[in-house]
C-alpha cells in the first residue's frame, strides 16, 4: 500500500486512502494476536473435560487479557459523541486574510473529520438531553492538522481556563451518589453558577432551545474564542468562526426531548449516520467575522472575553467555504473514540489570541489526549495521522509503530545531513505572530471583563415570545430540581440583573419571593440573528414523516401525498399496528416500516393519516394511535389527514385538533391540514409541505389541554 503521507496533493480522498492501509477485513480463520490459527474458541484447555483450566492455555489467557484492557478513559467532558468524515472547500481564495493553504484554492477539497458531542453525560448517556453540543472539526491540510474545537453556542461559562475544573466538577453528577446523569438540574451546578456571575450570558443560552437541538445536522457551530488570521505579508486580523447548517437551525420541545431520550437514546447519532448513509449529506457553511487590529477596543466588551459574542449586526459573518459530511466511520472506537481534537492544532495563517480561556486550552488538550490514549504517540493512530509528512526526533514511547531508519535522532546534527531541519517561514514553517507584549506578572482579571449582564440581556431581548416562554420554563425546571432554597434565590437574584420580568417569572414557578425591583434597567438592545425563529424555514429535506395506516387504507391518497413529500426530500415511514405488509381498500400492498410498539411520534417531524374506512376505524380504537396523534399535536408538529382520517381528528380522544370548528375547518394556520375531497390530494400535499417547512407551530404549545 502506498504511503500517502508523503504526497503533496491533498484532496478529499487523501485521508480516506491514508486510512485504507489500516482497514482490516476479517480473515478466514481465527488466530491468536501472533497469527497462530486456533482450533476452538468455545472451550478452554482443561485437565479432562470436567477438569480445571490449564495455565498453559495461551489462547484463553490472551483473549481475556485483551478483553480486560478494552476500555480507555472516556473524555472527561464531551464523552458521548458521533463522528463523520467529509470535506471542506473554500468558496474563493482568502489570501487577503490568511495564508492558510486550505483557504486558498476553491478547487481543493480538504478532508475533514467531525465529532459532535454532548458535554455532561458519560459515554453511554442518551443523546437527547438538555446540554451544550460539541462541534469539533479536524481539517487534514497539506500544512498539518488544523482543528476548530467549538460548541453549538457562541459563548462560554467562564472567562479564565483556571476555572474549568471547578465548572466541570460542578456540572457533572454529584460525587457522593453520581446523580443526576447527563443533566445540570442539580444543587452543585446551580450553587456554582449562583456564585459565578460571569456565567450568566451562557446560562441564558443553556436555558434556551439551543441546548435541545432537533439534529446535529440542524445546529450552528462556533469557534467561540477570537483567533487570528495572518496573511502572507504578515498582517494579522482578529477572527471568529461560525458554522451554519444549510438545513436551518431547529430545536424540539423539552417535553419531547425527554421522551426521545427514552424512546431512542441514540437519536442524534442515528439521525446523523442514517442521513449520511442515505446520501443526504449534511452541509455547513463556514463564516468568519473579521476585526481589524486597530478596532480591537472599539466594542463595549472585550473581544478576548469568551463570555461575549460579537453581534452579527455589528460585524457581519462572511461565508468563506462549505463543509460536506459524506462518509460514516468504519469503526466507532478506532475513529470516533480515538480522534484527538486540540485547539492547539493551528497551521501557518491561523494563530491564537490572548483570550485566557483559549490560552488554557492550548496545553490542556494534548495533555488530555496523552492520558486518554495512553501515549505521547497518539498522532500515530490512523484517525489522527496528518496527511502531510511528520518529521522530528520525538521517536520512542508507548506504541510507536513507525520505524525511524536514521541513526541520528537529535538536532543539530551533521551525520544525518542536518535533517530534519528547521523550516524557515517561507518554506512553510509556523511563525508565531509577533504580537507586542507587555505587563506585570499578575493573577488578575482585566477590568474590561467585568460586565457580566449586558449580553445576557441582549440575548433575552432578541428572543421571540415563544422562545422566552421556553426559556422561563427551562429555568423553572432546572432550578425546580434544586433542593437548596438559598441557591435558587441566589440564581434568581442574578437573573434579576439580566431582566426583571424574566427573574420574576422564574421565581413564580419556583414558589420563591419575586425580586422586588429592577437592578439594572434593560438596555433595550437586541440582535435578531440570535433568535432561531429568524432563521430560514424553507425546506422539508430529510424530515421524517410518519404515515399512520392499517389494513384498508386509501391507497391513492397515501401514494399521492407520499409522492409529493418525497419529491421535496422528506422521508416517509409507514407506521402501523403490526409489522409486515398492509393492504389498501383496493388491494394494494405496502410495507410497514415501524409498528406503534417500536416507535413514537417524538421520533418524527410530522404525521399524515390517509383515509380508508377500515384503517380509520381500527386507528380510532387504538390508544397508541390516538396517543401518537395527540403527542404530535402537543409537540406542535404538522399534521395532515385526508378522507375518513378527518373523522379521526374529530374523535373525542384527540384533544387539541378538534378545538377547530364543526365545519372541519381545522386551524390550518396552526399546521393542521385536512381535506375530505379525494380530488384535493395534490393541494393538501402542498399545504402539508408548507406546514412541515415551518418546523413547528409553537403557538399551539400554549394550549395545555393535551394529556399526552
Ligand atoms: Fe473543551 N475539553 N475545554 N471546550 N472541548 C475537551 O478534550 C477544556 C472548552 C470542547 O469531540 C477535553 O479530548 C478546557 C470550550 C469540545 O473529542 C479536555 C477548557 C469549548 C470537546 C477539554 C475547555 C470546548 C472538548 C476532554 C477551558 C468550545 C470534545 C477530552 C479552558 C469552544 C472534542 C478531550 C471531541 C473536549 C478541556 C473549554 C469544546 C479535557 C481546559 C470553551 C467540542 O481536554
UniProtKB/TrEMBL annotation:
Reaction catalysis annotation: 2 H2O2 = O2 + 2 H2O
Q: Which GO terms describe its biological process?
A: hydrogen peroxide catabolic process; response to oxidative stress
List the keywords (alphabetical). Answer: Heme, Hydrogen peroxide, Iron, Metal-binding, Oxidoreductase, Peroxidase
> What Gene Ontology molecular function terms does this protein carry?
catalase activity; heme binding; metal ion binding
Give the PROSITE patterns listed for this entry: CATALASE_3
User: Where, by residue number, does heme bind?
Assistant: 75, 115, 164, 361, 365, 372
Q: What is its EC number?
A: 1.11.1.6
Q: What class of enzyme is it?
A: oxidoreductase
Which SMART domains did the record assign? Answer: Catalase (SM01060)
- List, separated by semicolons, the cofactors it needs: heme
Tell me which residues this entry annotates as catalytic. 78, 151
**One Gene Ontology term, aspect cellular component:** cytosol
Q: Report domain Catalase core positions.
A: 31-419
The record's listing under Pfam families reads: Catalase (PF00199), Catalase-rel (PF06628), Catalase_C (PF18011)
Q: Report the sequence similarity comment from the record.
A: Belongs to the catalase family. HPII subfamily.
What job does the chain carry out?
A: Decomposes hydrogen peroxide into water and oxygen; serves to protect cells from the toxic effects of hydrogen peroxide.
Protein name, entry field = Catalase
Q: Its encoding gene is what?
A: katE
Amino acid at each position: 500500500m502506498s504511503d500517502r503521507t508523503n504526497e503533496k496533493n491533498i484532496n478529499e480522498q487523501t485521508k480516506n486512502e491514508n486510512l485504507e492501509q489500516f482497514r482490516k477485513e476479517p480473515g478466514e480463520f481465527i488466530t491468536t494476536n501472533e497469527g497462530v490459527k486456533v482450533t476452538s474458541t468455545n472451550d478452554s484447555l482443561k485437565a479432562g473435560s470436567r477438569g480445571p483450566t490449564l495455565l498453559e492455555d495461551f489462547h484463553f489467557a490472551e483473549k481475556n487479557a485483551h478483553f480486560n484492557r478494552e476500555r480507555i478513559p472516556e473524555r472527561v467532558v464531551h464523552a458521548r459523541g458521533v463522528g463523520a468524515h467529509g470535506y471542506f472547500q473554500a468558496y474563493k481564495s482568502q489570501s487577503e486574510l490568511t495564508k492558510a493553504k486550505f483557504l486558498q484554492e476553491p478547487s481543493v477539497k480538504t478532508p475533514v473529520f467531525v465529532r459532535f458531542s454532548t458535554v455532561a453525560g458519560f459515554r453511554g448517556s442518551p443523546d437527547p438531553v438538555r446540554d451544550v453540543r460539541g462541534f469539533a472539526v479536524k481539517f487534514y491540510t497539506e500544512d498539518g492538522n488544523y482543528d476548530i474545537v467549538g460548541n453549538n453556542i457562541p459563548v462560554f461559562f467562564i472567562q479564565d481556563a483556571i476555572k474549568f475544573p471547578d465548572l466541570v466538577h460542578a456540572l457533572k453528577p454529584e460525587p457522593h451518589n453520581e446523580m443526576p446523569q447527563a443533566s445540570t438540574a442539580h444543587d452543585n451546578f446551580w450553587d456554582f453558577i449562583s456564585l459565578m456571575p460571569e456565567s450568566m450570558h451562557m446560562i441564558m443560552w443553556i436555558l434556551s432551545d439551543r441546548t435541545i437541538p432537533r439534529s446535529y445536522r440542524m445546529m450552528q457551530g462556533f469557534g467561540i474564542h477570537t483567533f487570528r488570521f495572518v496573511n502572507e505579508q504578515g498582517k494579522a486580523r482578529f477572527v471568529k468562526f461560525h458554522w451554519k447548517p444549510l438545513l436551518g437551525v431547529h430545536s424540539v420541545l423539552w417535553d419531547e426531548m425527554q421522551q426521545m431520550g427514552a424512546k431512542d437514546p441514540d437519536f442524534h447519532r442515528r439521525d446523523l449516520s442514517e442521513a449520511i448513509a442515505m446520501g443526504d449529506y449534511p452541509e455547513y457553511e463556514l463564516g468568519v467575522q473579521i476585526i481589524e487590529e486597530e478596532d480591537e477596543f472599539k466594542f463595549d466588551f472585550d473581544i478576548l472575553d469568551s463570555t461575549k459574542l460579537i453581534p452579527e449586526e455589528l460585524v457581519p459573518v462572511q461565508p468563506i467555504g462549505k463543509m460536506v459530511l459524506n462518509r460514516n466511520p468504519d469503526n466507532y472506537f478506532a475513529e470516533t473514540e480515538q480522534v484527538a481534537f486540540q485547539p492547539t492544532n493551528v497551521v501557518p495563517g491561523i494563530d491564537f489570541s490572548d483570550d485566557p480561556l483559549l490560552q488554557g486550552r492550548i496545553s490542556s488538550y494534548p495533555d488530555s489526549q496523552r492520558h486518554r490514549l495512553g501515549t505521547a504517540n497518539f498522532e500515530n493512530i490512523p484517525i489522527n495521522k496528518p496527511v502531510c509528512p511528520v518529521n522530528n526526533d520525538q521517536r520512542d514511547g508507548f506504541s510507536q509503530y513507525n520505524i525511524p531508519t536514521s541513526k541520528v535522532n537529535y538536532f543539530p546534527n551533521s551525520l544525518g545531513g542536518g535533517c530534519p531541519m528547521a523550516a524557515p517561514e517561507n518554506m512553510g514553517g509556523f511563525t508565531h505572530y509577533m504580537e507586542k507584549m507587555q505587563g506585570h506578572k499578575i493573577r488578575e482579571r482585566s477590568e474590561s471583563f467585568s460586565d457580566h449582564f449586558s449580553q445576557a440581556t441582549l440575548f433575552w431581548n432578541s428572543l421571540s415570545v415563544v422562545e422566552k416562554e421556553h426559556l422561563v420554563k427551562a429555568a423553572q425546571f432546572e432550578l425546580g430540581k434544586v433542593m437548596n432554597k438559598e441557591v435558587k434565590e441566589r440564581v434568581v437574584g442574578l437573573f434579576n440583573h439580566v431582566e426583571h420580568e424574566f427573574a420574576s417569572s422564574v421565581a413564580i414557578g419556583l414558589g420563591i419571593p419575586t425580586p422586588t425591583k429592577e437592578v439594572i434597567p434593560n438596555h433595550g438592545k437586541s440582535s435578531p440573528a440570535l433568535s432561531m425563529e429568524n432563521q430560514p424555514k424553507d425546506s422539508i429535506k430529510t424530515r421524517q414523516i410518519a404515515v399512520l395506516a392499517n389494513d384498508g387504507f386509501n391507497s391513492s391518497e397515501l401514494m399521492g401525498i407520499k409522492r409529493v413529500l418525497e419529491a421535496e426530500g422528506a422521508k416517509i415511514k409507514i407506521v402501523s399496528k403490526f409489522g409486515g405488509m398492509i393492504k389498501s381498500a383496493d388491494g394494494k400492498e405496502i410495507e410497514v416500516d415501524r409498528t406503534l410498539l417500536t416507535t413514537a411520534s417524538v421520533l418524527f417531524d410530522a404525521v399524515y393519516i390517509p383515509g380508508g374506512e377500515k384503517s380509520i376505524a381500527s386507528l380510532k380504537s387504538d390508544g397508541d394511535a390516538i396517543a401518537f396523534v395527540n403527542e404530535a399535536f402537543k409537540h406542535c408538529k404538522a399534521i395532515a389527514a385526508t378522507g375518513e382520517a378527518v373523522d379521526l381528528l374529530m374523535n373525542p380522544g384527540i384533544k387539541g385538533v378538534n378545538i377547530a370548528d364543526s365545519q372541519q375547518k381545522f386551524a390550518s394556520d396552526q399546521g393542521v391540514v385536512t381535506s375530505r375531497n379525494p380530488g384535493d390530494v395534490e393541494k393538501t400535499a402542498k399545504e402539508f409541505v408548507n406546514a412541515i417547512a415551518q418546523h413547528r407551530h409553537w403557538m399551539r404549545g400554549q394550549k395545555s389541554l393535551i394529556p399526552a
